[in-house]
Design brief:
The complex is a heterodimer of chains A (about 425) and B (about 140). Chain A is mostly helical and about 425 residues long. Chain A has 19 helices and no strands. In chain A, about 75% of the residues lie in helices and about 0% in strands. The N and C termini of chain A lie far apart (about 75 Å). With about 140 residues, chain B is an alpha+beta fold. Chain B has a single domain, classed as Dimeric alpha+beta barrel (Alpha-Beta Plaits, 2-Layer Sandwich). In chain B, about 35% of the residues lie in helices and about 25% in strands. Chain B has 4 helices and 6 strands. Chain B has a 4-stranded antiparallel beta sheet with strand order 2-5-1-6, with helices on one face. Chain B is flat, with a radius of gyration of 21 Å. The two termini of chain B are about 35 Å apart. Classes of the chains: A mainly alpha (about 425), B alpha+beta (about 140). The interface of A and B includes residues 158 and 284 of A.
Chain lengths: ~425, ~140
């Protein structure tokens, strides 16, 4: 095997093993930052020795054992320092030795805890609410997906030093605030899990909003988020919202190919060529949603959004869409996670199910909503409903306003085209 | 990227001999690992080629040939679809797979075509956008 081939093979092993190694070490040393450094040392050792000796038969176990030894070395070094202080109290020495041996055994035992438990601890710590959402995302991609700072920087379109800084600070914050390396207790589990899911969905959306031609690392974020979600779904299989989020991401990802036209223009859901939807991902999404539903209880916000996405996935043509059900699901979503954007989407669904006048009434109720003041989709939706009601002059004004609010050139063109079209219709009339 | 990972048939699999309990258990464990790692998209085992058929095309003519087929080693006994970051990652996973049959067997790894493999048909506008982004990025780095 050539040196570069060995190098790629080591990278692949790292991709598969790094999170487990870091999680095991963090359990042992109780410090995520130190754990990552020690894991990196093990990776370096692999890069140094494997090209000469060839990869070991069980590369995962090799990395874990090397990392474990580094951790013990680290503790012994610390202990040496400690002992120098204690030499003054000479008679303590023997007891100290015994205690140290016990401690090492205890440390190793801790590291050998169930891999899944340690991984889950790592997820919760990386997504701890003491960190900003941005820091949580960067740390998660680093610790759980094994991405380099360079890859993370390219994915988020920021310079590498920014990400490096963000990760260093995040690790420091975790250390300073003494965040325990534990899965949260039952009473705080829901809130902490929400914090994890938020990060996963943020990573997914970063990738999903990437346009063609951007660095391939950006769309790759979708794959990373999906992978994280799928891993999480197996780590906490009884949490309905995890499956809800996975379902939502799988179904959205299934449309990735169909949502962009040949020259990069966005294609709206109802105009998409449904034969280009990825049926494998869609089926996986529907299966994940079924898992949520089987767990029982009221659907959470991710599950509800997934259920809405599933309505579209199940209709073979846009005309077959069950808008009554979608309107009802938005109703439920507006109750548990109210937001002006949800309300706007509900208005669209209501218009599709019960007519444009009903929808327009809901949209008009949002007119004074400060959060939507600069949101181009509000006038765009309003314009659309006005066209359907034959109020073309007003429609044209709304499309023009929407066009002035969007910063996306393609969307702007689309809206101006619609404004011109409403004008033409008016003239024909 | 996606890979199709194919388990090649053996004399036993073609004879319809089911894998023994030990192999089944090991394979079950391996599949579980794949799911836990978020790698497995799909996977199925295939019945012997005696239960299959081929359709041969020659111009507009179609001829149906019933199984079994002779070239055992070229046949497939099962497959997975995996989502991984690189071919090396797929290879690494295959190396961890238990031997699917007693004795000699082979697994083949093939990359699945995806949209971006059909040539980056960048429009001038998209290319310009990308160059602008890169320029912004390098400006920020300074």
């Amino acid at each position: 095997m050539t040196a570069s081939a060995t190098h790629s093979a080591i990278e692949a092993v790292w991709r598969i093993e790094s999170a487990k190694v870091i999680a095991g070490l963090a359990r042992m040393v109780r410090d995520v930052g130190l754990a990552e450094e020690l894991a990196q040392e093990a990776l370096l050792a692999a890069l140094e020795t494997w090209p000469g000796t060839g990869a070991p038969d069980n590369p995962g176990a090799w990395l874990m054992a090397t990392a474990k030894n580094r951790a013990l070395d680290h503790f012994r070094r610390d202990k040496l320092l400690e002992r120098k202080h204690e030499e003054l109290a000479g008679e303590m020495e023997l007891e100290h030795e015994i205690a140290a041996a016990d401690r090492e055994a205890a440390l190793i035992e801790r590291m050998d805890d169930d891999i899944g438990d340690n991984l889950l601890r790592l997820v919760f710590v990386a997504c701890h609410p003491v960190l900003s959402t941005e820091a949580r995302a960067a740390l998660t991609l680093r610790l759980l997906c094994g991405l380099t700072t360079d890859e993370i920087a390219r994915a988020f379109l920021v310079p590498e030093p920014t990400i490096a800084q963000r990760i260093v600070r995040a690790k420091r914050t975790l250390g300073e605030t003494r965040v325990p390396f534990e899965v949260p207790r039952k009473d705080e589990l829901a809130a902490r899990l929400a914090s994890v899911l938020e990060v996963v969905y943020l990573v997914f959306n970063e990738g999903y909003s990437a346009t063609a031609g951007e660095d391939w690392m950006r769309p790759a974020l979708c794959a990373e988020a999906l992978r994280l979600g799928r891993i999480l779904a197996e780590l906490v299989p009884k949490e309905p919202e995890v499956h809800g989020l996975v379902a939502l991401m799988e179904i959205q990802a299934s449309r990735a190919l169909a949502r962009v036209g040949p020259s990069g223009e966005p294609i709206l859901l109802l105009d998409q060529d449904r034969s280009r939807w990825d049926h494998l991902l869609m089926r996986r999404g529907l299966a994940a949603l079924a898992r949520t539903e089987q767990l029982g209880g009221r659907l959470g916000p991710y599950a509800l959004q997934a259920a809405i996405a599933a309505c579209h996935a199940r209709s073979r043509t846009a005309q077959e869409t069950d808008w009554t059900r979608i309107a009802a699901l938005y109703d439920a979503l507006a109750q548990i996670a109210p937001s002006p954007v949800v309300e706007l989407n509900r208005a669209v669904a209501v218009a599709m199910a019960f007519g444009p006048a009903e929808g327009l009434a809901l949209v008009d109720a949002l007119a004074s909503e400060p959060a939507l003041k600069h949101y181009h989709l509000l006038p765009a939706v309003r314009g659309d409903l006005l066209v359907k009601l034959g109020r073309l002059d007003e429609a044209r004004a709304e499309f023009e306003r929407a066009a002035s609010l969007t910063r996306n050139a393609r969307e702007k063109k689309l809206l101006l085209d619609r404004a011109a079209a409403s004008h033409k219709l008016r003239v024909v009339k | 990227m996606r890979f199709m990972v194919m388990v090649k048939a053996t004399k036993d699999s073609e004879a319809g001999v089911l894998p023994d309990e030990q192999i089944l258990a090991a394979m079950g464990k391996f599949n579980e690992e794949l799911v836990k790692a978020g790698v497995m998209l799909a996977g199925e085992g295939l019945q012997a080629s005696s239960k299959g058929a081929r359709v041969r095309f020659k111009g507009s003519k179609r001829t149906v040939i019933d199984g079994p087929f002779a070239e055992t080693k070229e046949l497939i006994a099962g497959f997975w679809l995996w989502q991984v970051k690189s071919k090396e990652e797929a290879i690494e996973w295959v190396k961890r797979c238990p031997n699917p049959f007693s004795g000699e067997s082979e697994i083949e790894i093939r990359q699945v075509f995806e949209a971006e493999d059909f040539g980056a048909e960048f429009t001038p506008e998209l290319r310009e956008q990308e160059e602008r982004l890169r320029a912004q990025l390098s400006a920020k780095k300074k």
